[in-house]
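Spend some time on the protein that follows and explain the fold to me:
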Amino acid sequence: MKFFLVLAFLFLAAFCNAQNCTGSVGDPIVNVTFGSGSSFGPPLASNTISSLNYVASTCPPDGNYSILNYTSGCFSNDVVWHTAKDHTGNSNGYFMLINASYIPSDFYIQTIDGLCSGTTYQFAAWIINMCSFTGTLPNITLTIEKTDGSVLATYKTGDIPIVNPVTWKQYGFNFTMPANVSTVVLRMRNNAPGGIGNDIGLDDITFRPIGPAVKVAASAFSGDTIDLCLNDTQNILLTSDVESCYFSTGYQWQLSTDKGAKWTDIPGANSTMYLRNATQAGTYLYRLAVAEQSNLGSLTCRVTSKPVTINVYSNDSRTIKITTPSSSVCEDNPVSFIATTSYGGSSPDYQWFLNSAPVGTNSNAYTLNDPDSGDVVNCLFTSSIPCNTPVLSNSITVMVNSKKNIIVNESICEGENYAGYTTSGTYVNTFTGINGCDSTRTLNLMFYPKGTSETDTSICYGTSYQGFDQTGIYTQQFTTTHSCDSLHTIHLTVLPDINENLYTDTILCTGDSIILYPGLFDSYLWQDGSVNSTFIVSKGGIYSVKVANKCGTGVKQMTVTEQSCDILFPNAFTPNNDGLNDIFKVLNGYHLTYFHFVVYNRWGQKIFESDDPKKGWNGKIEEREGGTGTYEWTCDYVRVRQKLVHLKGTVTLIK
């Protein structure tokens, strides 16, 4: 019985001592990043709940949360949110944006399965205070509970301060799983009230097993990185140093061939040492995972060492090739060379050669500033990766093309251009020749304006000037001594015919007047002795004027007959096609400047309309003969220099 008690005591002491071992951590068994994407993320996963409601918004209101990759400047009238992104800096990475409820609440509750009894775990989460100016400070309690609500561990952040610029901070703690428990509940509670402030961002929630310090090394080698050549067939012994922590420690060596992205257990490698046999070329990472022997098969219970990296290099796998934009270059232009290499390592060496002489700096690029035709360039490449000997690149022979300079003397006339230039001057232009090199053209340009002249003259009626016998403007073109066009403009006026009669005889309506104008002459003498260029006629008679100009003198006259011009309409008509009184129209429509005539039937419907005094109604209504009876009519007209007159009346259609 005493032996059993001592053994139990030793077991308890060992178990208690295990809880103080925190020198190594395992791979994350929980890693909540909330994902990534270009728009909003989905609500929380099915094993996670929240007292808040999900909304797809960059500015969720109180009592709501969103999963998103960016938010900026919300609530500018009070707290002013930060411009915030995923805590890792991933532009598309999501985080949980929380606008707390008015009453303190549990904003994140997650159930976590598959944990190991007696194993210590590290919980951590990244949090920011979203407010940049003022507002209630978030105050969060982080709790690890059993599924029955029993609290295993609690951590309080205290008031999370406002920080400018916005800075993510990690909060976390360690806890140990009791016996016979494999599932816990993570609860995050916001203790502060909502409203103005108390807004947070949450990201990258992790659970990792922690345990004894585990160190591994390679016998006969220093450091944690070993470089070997492919022909090196030696075996390497990997040893370990594990802190005393577990009652019974289990060991599992692991291998990664993708630089630590994925690890696999090495079958049978379950001791404190592992003998590595020679391999093909590649990068091999080895580490040791440890756990309580009974938990070794569970990935959620293990902690691991830092890896030992073994690089196996192929012999002489390095390559080099030099190139240039063009081995044919232009005179006075530099030419650049670029070396493209493989398997150079972190610090390769380049030695450039020009015509077998070393030049340049230790760089993958070299510039020859003053090349000559026939120059030969190559490069000696030395890799910093083991197992590679120096290698000489291909050689490039340079050809240099000469430039050309051209002088052009040219002249242009007004309105022309040469190569786009329109004024006198010297212009220097650069062009690319067929050999790809610049050519210079110097243009000496002379500009000559056009010659212009004008002549204003008049001729007598019936004569001509330089072949022109009508009043008008005429342009003639000539060529100057510089072969440029010269323009001569003739403004020609043909004087009126001195012998042409004044007007044809005309009728003058009583009460009207007309103005007589014989044309443009030097002098006028009317029948009443007046000498004006015009004469106003207000009654009938014979009127004459004696006119004179440089072409001679002449007398012009006309007879004006005065008569009444009142508008008259007949009161009846007989549209029977006998040629007598068949059309109803105005009888004396003289000297009218406006005329509008309408006929209506007995019901006031319009049956005829005309704006021409010469046209009248033929007695038909829509191509059918109108019936005998009385019809109404209206007429509006304006005579020369008179006001609008409105007339109306009736007419009888007789069959």
Notes: The mean pLDDT is 87. The radius of gyration is 56 Å. The chain is about 5% helix and 45% strand.
